[in-house]
Structures are given as C-alpha cells and as structure tokens.
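Quick question, first post here. What does this chain look like in 3D?
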Amino acid sequence: MRGKNSPYTYEQAGVSIAEGNALVKAIGPLAKATARPGATSELGGFGGFFDPKAAGYEDPLLVAANDGVGTKLKLAIEHDRHDSVGIDLVAMCVNDLIVQGAEPLFFLDYFATGKLDNGVAERVVAGIADGCKQAGCALIGGETAEMPGMYADGDYDLAGFCVGAVERGEQLTGERVAPGDVLLGLASSGVHSNGYSLVRRLAEDFGWKLDRPAVFDQDRLLIDALIEPTRIYVASLLPLVREGLINGLAHITGGGLLENIPRILPEGAHAMVNADAWDQPRLMAFLQAQGNIEPAEMARTFNCGVGMVLAVGADEAADVTERLEEAGETVVQVGEIAGGPRGCTVTGSAGTWSAKTDWEATHSG
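> Answer (accepted):
Ran it through. Tokens below.
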C-alpha cells in the first residue's frame, strides 16, 4: 500500500521511458537498412530531413498519403502474427502514392499501445522496414506511444504517413484516360487490408479454426492465408509510369473494383469490367461461399483478386503486360474504357453491377 507521502513516478502510472528508449535503440538498424539518396536514417531527433534534389528531382510536386491497417490487426494480435502487418501499413500508403505517379520517398509510422512490449514492437517495425525496402522509401522516423488505459492488454494500433514526389507535369490525374483504353489488372496477394471486419465476423459466426489447414489450401493454415500482407506494386509500376506508358492507376482498396476505378476517370469515360476475365482466387471464393455474399457485395467490399488496375492505350497493352510479367506481376486484361457517364460497370455470369459518380451502386441481371 502506498504511503501518504510516497513519491509517484511515470513508470508506476504505466509508462516506461527506459523501455521506450530501448526500443528506439533496437529499431535504429532497421531504419538504417532503408536508407536511400536524399534521406537521413538517424532516429531520435525531433524530425527527419529529406533532400529531393539529392534524390534526383529538379522541380518536384510532393504527394502525401496516410493510412492504417484496420481490423486486420486484431487477427495479428490474437494469433501472434506481428511480423507482416508493418508491410500492410507501408503498402496501403505507397500504393496510394504510385497511382498519382509519385515515387515514395520517406515514411513515418505511429505505434500506439497500452503497455509497451518491445519484442512485439520490434517485430512490427521490422515489417515496416521490410515494406519500405520493397517500396524504395526510407523510414526516417515515427512515434511510439505508450498509453495505459487506452488499449486492452496486448492491443496496439498502427498508422503510417508517406511522402512521395513526381516531377511537375508528369503526375497521374486520370485526365489522360480515354475511351478505347485497355484496363489491366494486377493480381492481389490476398484480402490485402480491407474487408476484415466482415472476415472476422464470418470467422466468429462460423467458428473457423484459424490454426488448422485452410479447406481451400491444405498446405497452409487459414490464419496465414488471411494475414498474407498487402502486395506492394511500386517497383514494377514506377518505370512504366516514368516512361508515360500508363494513363491511369487505381488502387483497389475499400469499395472494391466498383468504387475505386471511377476515382481515376474523367467525365465522359466509363469503365467496363468483365468479371469473367479472371478466376476468382480460392480464398475469395471461400469467403463468398461462407458468407453467402452477393456478387455485388463482393465487388464493393473485397479486391476479388485484383489489387491494382491500370488504364493503358490499346497499342501499349501488350508491351506493358510483358514488362509487368517480367517484373513478377500476374497480369490480366479485365476490361476497357468506354464512352459514357463517369463510373464503372462490372459484368459477369452472375449479373451486372454499376457504380455512378455518386457511388450509388445498382444491380441488374
């Protein structure tokens, strides 16, 4: 029992400055491993510097993006899968930058928890550093917040902030997209980082055994299929963007194909997507069957196996496809741009769905 005049300390309140300092020291080498021209990789200052000229830019526009991982973190926490959610965090930001034509330059993370567990935090930050290396950007700083009472035991949250650059006049705004363009889809690595509230609801309602082999892949645990990190497309797309071979890019996140493709379309351009052009991944088919999810709901909730969509000129489609495949991507022609009101229509053997510019979905068939 505390004496009447006993002194209070911050650590007794639940916050250990020493543990925080130890974490910064431990993750220093992880940040250094992401060093690139223009960046300083030293942690511990009040901010991080970046020199765009040292990165090779003459007259850059800066593009910024921030995001989180969402409730996918609950799966990671509950099943001790902390090593890859940092990749998800980076991917959600850098994939949003490349669709603007921007090269990701530097990244900062925010890790918040009730009680700091340095072992878990280091694993998370190692994933962030891995994602940064995949995207070619530097991890130049971040914030670790220990906040007793804000989070349940073992819980944590992540947020990320990334800045990229594109030379003035070379940015992708969608204004070059035009009727006649071909739509190419790049395969996703899984659910990525959207739709997990529904995934977790299905897991709970149907009593999935996540530590058992998946029914659709006996060589893999179900939890490992669900936790597969978001694919980072920067390295394969950036050279093509810089050569002017891509007219528009859509990152397929929340809202799925129906709501993300229209975001890059100018007035008078309508995306026509053929859902029968590619085989739905077995994981997606499993989710749909388990939840008896209507096709229209799938098309606006999950990526359905396509994590990025490119609009390219018809004459360039074959060359772009070949180069992306050489870079390790799986590419399929998913549709085309037609004339009409700005929006997207997905057709397939199961019916037809469309999203208008006000994102109101309609269904027929």
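DSSP finds eleven helices and 14 strands in the chain.
The CA atoms of residues 283 and 289 lie 10 Å apart.
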